[in-house]
């Protein structure tokens, strides 16, 4: 396995592909992001507060600790950034893709999760070198 983004079932042109297919324009299985990825976990809970200061809290659902990642692709060629940007545009926060990240367990393996890319921006750094950053949110599907 390789760290980075891979397709789930939708490719850049809108065609249906096998999960794990390389994104259009990339020869390797995964489109590798830069170092320094930030992972945030925000547990979902249901709570009821009572007038005497008493509070009741419950986990909201089975998968109550979804994660988000702040990811960047810095100083890449225009073609690479355009390919990533086109892929994210095709997904349009509706379709999912696969994101492989380091796993925090003792074995140090990698973990592949299903995500939606919710926001992304392209920076025209200089000449033919651009940068792109995005936010990926873990989703749980059947």
| Number of contiguous helices | 1
Helix content: under 10%
Tell me the structural class.
mainly beta
> What is the number of E strands?
8
Largest sheet: 6 strands, antiparallel
**Sequence of secondary-structure elements:** EEEEEHEEE
Walk across the major sheet and give the strand order: 1-6-7-8-5-2
**What characteristic shape results from the CA principal axes?**
elongated
Residue fraction in strands: 35-45%
Unreliable spans are none
Number of domains: 1
Distance between the termini: 22 Å
Return Rg in Å: 18 Å
Account of the protein in words:
- The chain has 142 residues and is mainly β.
- The protein has 1 helix and 8 strands; from the N terminus they run βββββαβββ.
Descriptive key words:
1 helix; 6-stranded antiparallel sheet; two-stranded antiparallel ribbon; 10% helix; mainly beta
Question: What is this structure's SSE topology?
Answer:
Blueprint: E1 4-7, E2 38-41, E3 45-49, E4 55-59, E5 67-77, H1 78-91, E6 97-102, E7 110-126, E8 129-138
Antiparallel strand pairs: 1-6, 2-5, 3-4, 5-8, 6-7, 7-8
